[in-house]
Each structure stands twice: as structure tokens, then as C-alpha cells.
Amino acid sequence: MSAARISRLAVIGAGLIGSSIARAAREKGLADTVVVSDADPGVRARVRLLGFADVVAETAAEAARDADLVIACVPVCASGAVAAEVGPELKPGAILSDVGSVKGAVLEAMAPFVPPHAHLIPAHPVAGTEFSGPEAGFAALFENRWCILTPPEGADPEAVERLAALWRGMGANVEAMTARHHDLVLAITSHVPHLIAYNIVGTAAHLEETLTSEVIKFSAGGFRDFTRIAASDPTMWRDVFLTNREAVLEMLGRFTEDLSALQRAIRYGDGEALFAHFTRTRAIRRSIIEMGQETAAPDFGRRPAPGAAE
Amino acid sequence: MSAARISRLAVIGAGLIGSSIARAAREKGLADTVVVSDADPGVRARVRLLGFADVVAETAAEAARDADLVIACVPVCASGAVAAEVGPELKPGAILSDVGSVKGAVLEAMAPFVPPHAHLIPAHPVAGTEFSGPEAGFAALFENRWCILTPPEGADPEAVERLAALWRGMGANVEAMTARHHDLVLAITSHVPHLIAYNIVGTAAHLEETLTSEVIKFSAGGFRDFTRIAASDPTMWRDVFLTNREAVLEMLGRFTEDLSALQRAIRYGDGEALFAHFTRTRAIRRSIIEMGQETAAPDFGRRPAPGAAE
Ligand SMILES: NC(=O)c1ccc[n+]([C@@H]2O[C@H](COP(=O)([O-])OP(=O)(O)OC[C@H]3O[C@@H](n4cnc5c(N)ncnc54)[C@H](OP(=O)(O)O)[C@@H]3O)[C@@H](O)[C@H]2O)c1
Ligand SMILES: NC(=O)c1ccc[n+]([C@@H]2O[C@H](COP(=O)([O-])OP(=O)(O)OC[C@H]3O[C@@H](n4cnc5c(N)ncnc54)[C@H](OP(=O)(O)O)[C@@H]3O)[C@@H](O)[C@H]2O)c1
């Protein structure tokens, strides 16, 4: 299916994801005009300096005016406010989308503000880094990554395809599913992993002071991997846990049940159970590498810190 | 303090760590002769082919004969058997050491076999990758990493210094502490992180089959970091949990208490508590990067999988 070209693309929120979309769209010529807006005047000034937008709009409403596609790239709990602001500006046939890490709550928050002549098609690119802000984005962020669309029931197939074409143009593989299913899958692939990474780094921070400094020193044993995840944006993650509560609590319940079993095996010295568990988990990594979602290089091919001896 | 040169270095167990020591010692000329042995004849054959040993010995006893320094590089629960085999061969003044990830249990298992004319100085290089076997090792593995020595009370300072000099020669920073303290620190920096990584990957593997395949597909959201840790050697990790039970259970207890608090904050929608927790953990990563134990590059500077679009 060929999709109509995007004349005006409006990106609301110029953080890691929004600025990556603007950069990719410009670099690959996916829209005639890329308009960027952000609630923070400081961010708007930096976007002007960085030069990845054709137009920097003062308000989301101004950015959305006459746009074919408006993408809210803001923390999940702010998506309703963006929809309220841009809704009245949406022209007939315009698409309103987002990039939020939770989809059920976003759909619910945005839907009331979308006029019947426009289309609401939420989306979530499964790609990111631990950094945020307009400087952190880059055009290649979505290459070879998945973008999940969660069109509501009865969504216009042409609008869905137009949005999908933009994501494919940025290098992503596109898949569609229900918002509910998205939230369940992401709870285990992303939300619970972030929670337990935040948690173990927090546990380490709560130790006696001398112990904490040793934890930092000897972090190369595995802990430092967790600190990368736990360095992600606090606002973004607060919103994720506030809005995907049900699925997160369900998956967290399974996680702690399984952890109790491992804990019991350790307490009673059950080496066979431990060995069996530690063997089964290897196949999953193999599959992820085979699917091209991960490097096979030892230690992620991680380079040492600048200034480190090599 | 200047340390006597090592004439004959014996490495018992030619896996990731043993083969890295042999390579580094040869490359940097830290011993006149590097002798390597392994219980597995297939591994010995591969060591001959790889050519990083001056001599490949058929048995640990043969390797240890006339050696100044013998390093057991085997899974923690095998260190007692190695000590039993090499003990009778240790010449006066010889040092027996190891690289095990747990130190209290190793000390206990090896000590009975060390004759009074030799020195037992356990050690643990805090460096590794998720791979094992003689092909996985490389000479630079220990550069800018810590090596922790846990000399028993009353250990000979000259023997300690001789071992420390070897580790510094391989690029490591050396620190000494008691075995008990080592096991507590490593429980939180390494053992519990490995356990929870193994656990969440296991939880994902136990989901309904279609859900598991989606977890693999959308793993870039954070989950794939955990799969790297959970791809580590099952024998090594079974031994770690069997031998550092007390410290692991203590730290695991703190971890689950803290997790319950986060879970509660999610259940009752306490955004402020979540935000506060997610903010505190960032400082720890900054310190690790400042100490040169980690790269500051987004996503570890991870390169995409071979064959991935870019
Ligand atoms: N980071 C990731 O790895 C990742 C991956 C996939 C999806 N996502 C999703 O992408 C979205 C954005 O994340 P990000 O990492 O790009 O965040 P970010 O770097 O923190 O950027 C968000 C930007 O949106 C602005 N903003 C907040 N509320 C606004 C509003 N009402 N109107 C206009 N601008 C507003 C923020 O300004 P202030 O600084 O003034 O608040 C900030 O500049 C989130 O929903 C997140 O769930 C993130
Ligand atoms: N991997 C890491 O990241 C890391 C980091 C720091 C410390 N360590 C510690 O280093 C030690 C070795 O780990 P590794 O990763 O190098 O393991 P590895 O790659 O699995 O190698 C261990 C080698 O020792 C051999 N072996 C086992 N029992 C033996 C015995 N009784 N006599 C002689 N050889 C024997 C094994 O042969 P088989 O294959 O026949 O068993 C294998 O070839 C462990 O104690 C571990 O805790 C590991």
C-alpha cells in the first residue's frame, strides 16, 4: 500500500525520542517541513541552536496547525495535556500519534480530545538510550528496531499505513497489536527490568557508606550494567509505573515467585536446581542475537571509560 | 617493595580467566615459563593449538612441580580438589593462589592441603565476560580492573607482594581485604545482580510460548542487557551460590524488602516516592564512570548485531 507523503510533521517534545524523529525525518526527507515544539523555552532555544527543525514553534497548538501528522514525544502522563492542546487544531485527515512507553493509558488520555475528522494512532518505538534531552537524539536510533503501533478498534487503515510508512522510513520494523497486549509484553521486556535495576542500585545506595563506595569500585562484576538502566529519566519512568500498574504488578508477582524458588535453592544448597535454571536462560540470549536485536560481542563490545588504561 | 621474579608460573584450568592470565603473563614477560594444565583433555588440545602456553602439562601436579606460583582458575567448588592435587608438589616458598569469585569457601577448601613451607594467597580479579573456555580469554582482560587479594591472617607479606606484582604487571589495580568482607561486597556487586538477571530471564522463558517469542523480539527495551549476564557459565554460578550462601541471602533479603516498597508505591500510585527513588540512583552511575570502571557512551557504545541494518 503506498502512503500519502507527509507535508508538515509536528513533533511535540524535543527530548531523546522527539529530537531523534526530527533528525531522522529531515535526514531521510520523510516530510517537507519538520516543526518542533517543546513546553520548555530552554529546550526550544537549544533546538534552534542544534538546527534539526525547519520550524521551532512556541506552542504545541501552533506546531499542530495544518500538520498532517502530530507526534507527542512527551512523558506518558503529559500526553493527555498535549492532546487537549493540539486537538482543536487538527485538520481533517490529520493523524495524532505518540511514542509513549505505555499504550492503554495514553489511548485513554488522548482519545477524548481528538475530533472525529482526525485519526488517533498511538505508537511506541522500542529503542532508546539512558540519556535524555535534545542533544541525546540521533537519526539512526530507530534503525533495525521495532516500532509497535496500537491503533484503536475501527482505526482507518490508510492512516495506520501512513504512520507505519514514516516509521519504516526511519529504519524501523513495524508491528501492530492491541494496547493491552503491548502493555503486557513491555511490562516484562522493559518495565520490570527497569524497576529491578532501579531497585538493586537503590539497595546498594542504602548500604553503610563505606560499603557503597566499595560497590562503586568493584562494580565491574555485573552491577554496572544495572546502573546504566537505572540512570534513565526519572519522570519518564515514574509515569510508566503510574500508568501500567496492572501489567507491571502481574509480571512483578511472577518475578518474585520465581526469585523465591531460587532463594530457596540457595538456602538448601540445591545445586542441581540452580544449574538447571542457569542453563535454560542461555537459549533466550542466543535468539535475541539471531534476531539482530543485540551484538554478540563480549561485554556488549563495551569500550573502556575515557582515560582508562588500554 | 620489589618482588622476586617468577620463574615458573602454573595455571590450572584454562578457561576464560586462566587463559587470559597465561596470555597476559607471556605477552608482558611476567614469568620465564608459563605452564598450563586443565582437567579436560579436549581443552588441553585446544590450548596447544592456541599456543599461549610454553608448556601444556597433563596433570595439575605435573604443572605445579617446581613452580614459584600456582594459580587455580577453576570453578569455586573445584578449588579444593586442585589444592589436594598440587599441595604435595609445592616447593618451599611457592605460592598457591586462585581466581574464584568467592573467597571464604575457597580459603577453607584449599588451606588443609597447603604444606607449611608454602603460601596460600587467594585472589579474585573483578573482570570477566559472559564467555568461557580457552578461546574466550585475552591478555587485556585485567587492564584497569581491580584484583582483590584476601591473604589469610599471618600471611607472609613478601609472598603477598609477589602475587600483587604479577597482577599489577597484568594491568590490574590491587586491593587487599578479608575473605569475609570480599564475599559481602561481591554479593551485592556481582552475585545478586547475576541471580536477578538469571531470574528475570527465567520468568520470561516461563511465559506462554507466544509471549516468550515477543519478549525476544522486543528485548531492546532493557531486557536484553539482563540476558547477557544470564548467559554466563552455569557451573561457575552454581558454585558461587552454593559457597557464598550467607552473604547472598543477606543481600537478597535487602533487595526484596526494597522491591516490596517500590511495588507498594506502584500499587498505591505514589508518584513522588517513585520519582525520588529513580533520582537517587543516578549518582551511583556517575561515580562508576568517574572511577574509570565504565564507558559513558550511550547504551555502552554497543555495536549492532552483525547483519543488522545500519
Ligand atoms: N527514553 C527512551 O529510551 C524511550 C524509548 C521509547 C519511548 N520513550 C517514550 O518517549 C517519550 C519521551 O521520552 P524522551 O526520552 O524523549 O524524554 P525526554 O528526553 O525527557 O524529553 C521529553 C521532552 O518533552 C517535554 N515536555 C514535557 N511535557 C510537555 C508538554 N506538555 N508539551 C510539550 N513538551 C513537553 C519535556 O520538557 P521538560 O523538560 O520541560 O519537561 C522534554 O523536553 C516518553 O513518553 C517515553 O515513555 C522513551
Ligand atoms: N567468568 C568470569 O567472568 C569470572 C570473573 C572473575 C573470576 N572468575 C572465577 O574464575 C574461575 C574460572 O572461571 P572461568 O570463567 O575461567 O571458567 P571456564 O572458562 O569455565 O574455565 C574453567 C576451566 O577449568 C577446568 N577445570 C574444572 N575443574 C578442574 C580441575 N579440578 N582441574 C583442572 N581443571 C579443571 C574446566 O574444565 P571442564 O570444562 O572439563 O570443567 C575449564 O576448562 C571461577 O572460579 C570463577 O568464579 C570468573
TrEMBL record, chains A, B:
Name-wise, this protein is: prephenate dehydrogenase
Q: Which Gene3D superfamilies match?
A: 6-phosphogluconate dehydrogenase C-terminal like domain (1.10.3660.10), NAD(P)-binding Rossmann-like Domain (3.40.50.720)
Identify the species of origin. Answer: Aquabacter spiritensis
The molecular function terms in GO held by this entry are:
NAD+ binding; prephenate dehydrogenase (NAD+) activity; prephenate dehydrogenase (NADP+) activity
Describe the location of the Prephenate/arogenate dehydrogenase domain by residue ranges.
Answer: 7-296
A Pfam match? PDH_C
The record's InterPro entries line, in alphabetical order, gives:
6-PGluconate_DH-like_C_sf, NAD(P)-bd_dom_sf, PDH_C, PDH_N, Preph/Arog_dehydrog, Prephen_DH
Please verify whether the record's keywords include Hydrolase.
Answer: no
Extract the PROSITE patterns matched here: PDH_ADH
Q: Which UniProt keywords apply?
A: Amino-acid biosynthesis, Aromatic amino acid biosynthesis, NAD, Oxidoreductase, Tyrosine biosynthesis
Q: What class of enzyme is it?
A: oxidoreductase
GO BP annotations listed:
tyrosine biosynthetic process
* Record-linked SUPFAM superfamilies: 6-phosphogluconate dehydrogenase C-terminal domain-like, NAD(P)-binding Rossmann-fold domains
Write down the chemical reaction(s) this protein catalyses. Answer: prephenate + NAD(+) = 3-(4-hydroxyphenyl)pyruvate + CO2 + NADH
Q: Which domain of life is it from?
A: Bacteria
| Pathway as given in its UniProt record | Amino-acid biosynthesis; L-tyrosine biosynthesis; (4-hydroxyphenyl)pyruvate from prephenate (NAD(+) route): step 1/1
Give its E.C. classification number: 1.3.1.12
Q: Which family does it belong to?
A: Belongs to the prephenate/arogenate dehydrogenase family.
